[in-house]
Specification:
single chain, 282 residues, mainly alpha, 13 helices, 80% helix, disordered C terminus
Length: 282
């Protein structure tokens, strides 16, 4: 008797409940900030003005984003926990059949899709205001070290668990690999607010999806995500603090592009060669 094909309604529920959970988490965060502001204010009008000022601060930006990431990870873990499969397997937290140097090459190869995403997004930057990027720049300027650590770890873990871990792996059980990667990447891009950040997220999301698909593990894509977030945060921190001359910065950019292109080409070779052992049957 043929085995029952996995249902996709659980993926639909995860997609639907993720923005709801994120909104509730942010509402809870704003509520906590309102309670904290009320301690110092004796009128509702002063409370409202104080709350608006506090929510625009870098501390509040980290708090609200952190709660959003916690909600995202919570949806992924809850959905995987309800699955009959082991939690680590459902989330793709399995050991990839790659060596440490090969994973390192994949991480460096992420520079290319990220750069392509930034180049494409820059072409349409004037079409929409990128409000989140302004918050990010403010956090970098005020708390660069804290932000770099946060942006390198938290979003990469939470978002990979949901989009490449639970959603993409579930789709791979029903759909061709390329289609599962495209759909999960589009959902990943939509989750990022703003046209500019969504285009960047789509480009890198496609790469993360291919890496997770070919290696049959979310760990390499998670490490790629951590690396590109770290690199992006360091570069933006360097630019915001005006460290070094423009010539030195341009030299670093060129070096990154050269290293990234070489690593990207080698990454394609690694992913193609690993397909015989770890790629799914599609």
């Amino acid at each position: 008797m043929a085995s029952t094909r996995p249902r996709l309604w659980t993926v639909v529920l995860a997609i639907v409940f993720t923005p709801i959970a994120v909104a509730l988490a942010q509402a809870a965060g704003i509520g906590l900030l309102a309670v904290w502001c009320r301690v110092d204010e004796d009128s509702d009008w002063n409370l409202l003005k104080h709350l608006m000022k506090v929510t625009a601060s870098s501390h509040a930006a980290l708090l609200l984003n952190g709660l959003s990431q916690l909600a995202t990870a919570g949806i992924a873990i809850t959905a995987a926990w309800l699955s009959p499969q082991p939690l680590t397997r459902r989330l793709g937290l399995t050991r990839p059949k790659l060596s440490v140097p090969e994973v390192g090459v994949l991480m460096l190869g992420t520079i290319v899709p990220s750069a392509l995403g930034v180049a494409l997004a820059s072409r349409v930057r004037s079409l929409a205001e990128d409000i989140p990027s302004a918050d990010v720049d403010r956090v970098i300027q005020n708390h660069s070290s804290v932000f770099i650590i946060y942006i390198s770890l938290v979003p990469a873990i939470a978002e990979e668990l949901l989009f490449r871990g639970y959603i993409q792996l579930r789709l791979l059980e029903r759909w061709p690999g390329w289609l599962a990667v495209v759909v999960s990447s589009m959902l990943f891009a939509v989750q990022h607010v703003g046209v500019y950040t969504s285009i960047c997220a789509l480009a890198t999301g496609l790469w993360f999806g291919v890496v997770a698909w070919r290696t049959r593990s979310v760990i390499p894509s998670m490490l790629c995500h951590m690396f590109i977030n770290l690199l992006w945060a360091v570069v933006n921190s360097w630019r915001s603090q005006q460290m070094g001359s423009d010539v030195l910065m341009n030299i670093c950019y060129v070096a990154l592009v050269i290293i990234g292109c070489c690593a990207f080409l080698f990454s394609i070779y690694i992913l193609v060669m690993s397909c015989d052992n770890v790629c799914d049957a599609h």
